[in-house]
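$ ./design --mode recover --in tokens.txt
reading tokens...
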């Protein structure tokens, strides 16, 4: 995936480049948006990581220019050193797809970027399989396997598992998970979700020795993390980056 990093801090920009290149992405760093405009004429981009300070108070103009230059399919993630709720809201309303704090753990950042790469690939190859560690999801046949061994799951369990893996390290609310299974059905009891989660955890063996950790978030929902990421203490009141 082609990634541009717009970040004025040379050291942090280099760190991001190293993380993304190690994950197999083509990453280039730029000190500001103007440098990006001058050095990438005619080239395509899948993702831009941009320092929110680069907006200089003209957030909508900067993000609008990026989409106009590189297309509506471009994914834009805004980075801030110490993001406040007002910064997150402003970035998302200006057209960003996500907002992350610069203190994010490398393993979590890689998981977020890999999830975007899978969506980009799936859009170009709608029948493709998707791999997450040793888990392989056959999208066309709604089948999941681990190290080549098929795991018997129902259609609902497959959908739920794929939703979790596509949103690695991202807290997902009960409402969002229920909607992924049954659409907008406000009468669906949440204990149905808990039952599905319990069965899914057992069938897929979602534990660190198999590469992933499924964590319930009290009063909110669930989150699936790569085993290498440090689990954060999360409550319903700290979901500013969740869907």
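writing sequence...
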């Amino acid at each position: 995936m082609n990634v541009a990093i717009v970040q004025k801090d040379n050291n942090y920009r280099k760190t991001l480049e190293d993380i993304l290149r190690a994950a197999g992405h083509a990453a280039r760093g730029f000190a500001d948006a103007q440098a990006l405009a001058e050095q990438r004429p005619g080239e395509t981009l899948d993702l831009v990581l941009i320092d929110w300070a680069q907006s200089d108070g003209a957030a909508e103009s900067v993000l609008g220019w990026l989409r106009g230059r590189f297309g509506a399919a471009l994914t834009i993630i805004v980075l801030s050193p110490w993001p406040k709720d007002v910064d997150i809201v402003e970035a998302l309303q200006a057209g960003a797809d996500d907002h992350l704090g610069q203190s994010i753990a490398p393993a979590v950042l890689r998981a977020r970027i890999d999830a975007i790469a899978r969506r980009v690939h799936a859009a170009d190859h709608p029948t493709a399989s998707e791999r997450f560690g040793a888990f392989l999801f056959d999208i066309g046949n709604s089948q999941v396997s681990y190290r080549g061994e098929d795991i018997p799951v129902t259609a609902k369990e497959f959908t739920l598992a794929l939703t979790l893996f596509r949103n690695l390290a991202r807290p997902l609310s009960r409402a969002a998970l229920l909607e992924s299974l049954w659409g907008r059905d406000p009468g669906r009891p949440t204990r149905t979700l808990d039952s599905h989660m319990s069965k899914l955890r057992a069938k897929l063996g979602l534990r660190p020795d198999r590469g992933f950790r499924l964590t319930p978030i009290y009063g909110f929902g669930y989150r699936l993390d790569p085993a290498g990421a440090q689990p954060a203490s999360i409550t319903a009141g700290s979901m500013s980056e969740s869907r």
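exit 0
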